[in-house]
Structure formats: C-alpha cells, structure tokens
Q: What sequence folds into this?
C-alpha cells in the first residue's frame, strides 16, 4: 500500500516542479515607485534639497526610488512646465527593491513643474508637482 502512494508522489513531482516557478512568476508585481522628490542637488545618491531651493535655481532634479523585483527595465520621466510637456527622459532600472535614480530639466523660469513616471509600457506609476514661484 505504501509503494503505490510513493510511486504516485514521485510521478507527480516533475509536474509540481514545473508548475511552481510559473505560479511564482505570476504573483510577482512589476516595477513601482517607492518614493520620489524634487530637489536641486543629489549627494551620496540621495536628494539634498527641496522644492524651495528649486525656485532659486535654473535646474530641477527629480529623484526617484524604484522597486523592481523583475528583470532590468526602464521608466520614463515626463517633464511639464506650466502645464506644457517639455521633455521625456528614459532611465534604466535594475532589479532591486530600492533602485535610486534621477533626471533633470531646466526650469526655464516656470511657475509650476510637474513630473510623471511611466513604466516601459507607458502606464503611469506616479505624478508629482511643485510650485516654483
């Protein structure tokens, strides 16, 4: 009686072994924004300023920390000044729970600045804005 039970388990083992990795991949979430911040400078891979310092400068930087449990990918930063899109920047994102990266854009004497972070398929991950004046 034990022998047929053991044979049935051993016969099912290859099926279970191939099904489990597929199930694990389906449960994995894609790239996401952990946090983001406007700044005027980066020190030691971290933002070292805030939005008040942007009004005095000519360049805005958006620092973003990403979570990516999957393969390396890229995100796009869409920069808008006073409601008008001015530039798109692609940023490489490696596989990591806390991947830090940033992009920069000239403020061009704008009053408001907006950023949208898009995944590789163009889906919005985060929108952020700041008043510069």
A:
């Amino acid at each position: 009686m034990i022998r047929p039970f053991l044979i049935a388990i051993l016969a099912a083992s290859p099926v279970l072994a191939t099904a489990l990795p597929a199930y694990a991949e389906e449960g994995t979430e894609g790239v996401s924004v952990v946090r983001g911040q406007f700044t005027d400078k980066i020190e030691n891979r971290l933002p070292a300023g805030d939005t008040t310092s942007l009004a005095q400068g000519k360049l805005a930087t958006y620092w973003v920390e990403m979570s990516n449990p999957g393969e390396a990918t890229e995100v796009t930063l869409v920069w808008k000044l006073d409601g008008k899109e001015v530039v798109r920047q692609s940023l490489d994102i490696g596989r990591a729970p806390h991947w830090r990266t940033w992009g920069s854009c000239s403020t061009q004497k704008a009053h408001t600045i907006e950023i949208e972070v898009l995944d590789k398929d163009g889906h919005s991950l985060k929108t952020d804005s700041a008043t510069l004046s």
About this structure: The radius of gyration is 22 Å. The longest helix spans residues 2-26.
